Amino acid sequence: MPQGRRLTFRQAQYGRAPGTRSLRWAARSSGLALCLLLCSGAYAQDTAPAQLSTEIGFGAEHQTSALVRLSPQGELISIDGQRQLASSHLRLGVQGFANWQLGDALSMTFAGDASQKRTPATSEFDFASASLQPSLHLATPMGSLGWGLTLQRIDVAGSTLRDVRGTQLDWTVVEADGSLWATLVEFSGNRHPEAYADLDGSTTSVMLQRRLVQPGAGLEALDFTAYLARQRNDRGFDELSYRSAMLSATLQWRWGHWDWSAGTALQTVEFDASAFAQDAARVDRAISLDLALEHELTPRQALRLEHSAARSVSTQALYDNVYQQVAIKLRTTW
Q1: Residue 181 carries which DSSP code?
Q2: Which of 84, 127, 290, 302 has the highest count of CB atoms within 10 angstroms of its CB?
């Protein structure tokens, strides 16, 4: 790939090229959920040794700019030639988890997830992801220690945009009532097609989660998560290297025949430099709100309604964004 074409992409990503348009804010990947599943592998043998669930649903989303976030904790990026999103979509998903006891203290877990979102009116906004995370867990008097691999592929508009390969270490302490502390450290690399190779990078991240079970009257659970990450661009571009921090909280409760949840997250992404020599280093800040209610139709099926909203502001106006989504899903456990 000639260097000139890469520079054209870098210019598009930071708004240098006249008339540049870019991709929408993508649906959040389920990598974080898979990490939490693996963190809970310490006590998987006390529950079902294997779980499989599927989702089918539809929804509508809208945002004021054309950006993509490839992971819940990642930065907003833009891709030349795409438009902002205001469309309905169809979604299919499957998630599985299995646990095997290899001895009195050693167990192996395997988590997998795949999802696809289709926007029939604008196929360039199609988004798909697949993740696999095998791991080993050793039970100790101080909690469970785990080591595992992370494999992920992300497709946009029917073409691969990012491959992720990584390794992770986790430590989980489960209390008598089911509450837990979980810590996960991950080292990963992001690889892209040659046209987008300037985005290749290496990431080190740390996640700490505290889950409280029945923390108050009428409450089912309360989750707090802190996430820190450092990404370094493999091509030496400081404007593509950054530090990220995110804090989130989610509350779950039951009211009538419905299970409710409400969550919020605050995120800051600080880049090492700006794409423009005269500007200070780029800084993005975002706040999001997620609301959901779920009704059990049968012991194996549940209907779920969701609403998500987020607002991002940046020292570079290209990355200002307001996003909203509503969706309805049918979840089946097999």
Answers
A1: E
A2: 127
pTM: 0.81
Tens digit of each residue's pLDDT (9 = 90 or more) over 233-255:
999 999 999 999 999 999 999 98
Q: Cα–Cα distance between 161 and 13 in angstroms, integer?
A: 14
User: CA of 127: how far to CAs of 43, 116, 186, 260, in Å?
Assistant: 33, 6, 24, 27
- The burial of 200, by beta-carbon neighbours within 10 Å (0-12 exposed, 13-18 middle, 19 or more buried), is given as middle
Q: Are 226 and 246 in contact (CB under 8 A)?
A: yes
Q: Which residue has the tokens 């030496």?
A: 236
Backbone phi, then psi, for 129, in 5-degree steps? Answer: -145, 150
Nearest residue to 147 (alpha-carbon basis) of 138, 157, 155: 138
The angle subtended at Cα 96 by Cα 94 and Cα 102, nearest 5°, is 165
List helix spans (H) across the chain. Answer: 3-13, 31-39
Average pLDDT of every residue of the chain: 83
DSSP state of 3: H
Q: Which of 141, 142, 145, 146 is nearest to 111 (CA)?
A: 146
Partners of residue 67 on adjacent β-strands: none
Amino acid at site 120: P
How far is Cα 45 from Cα 128, in angstroms, rounded to an integer? 31
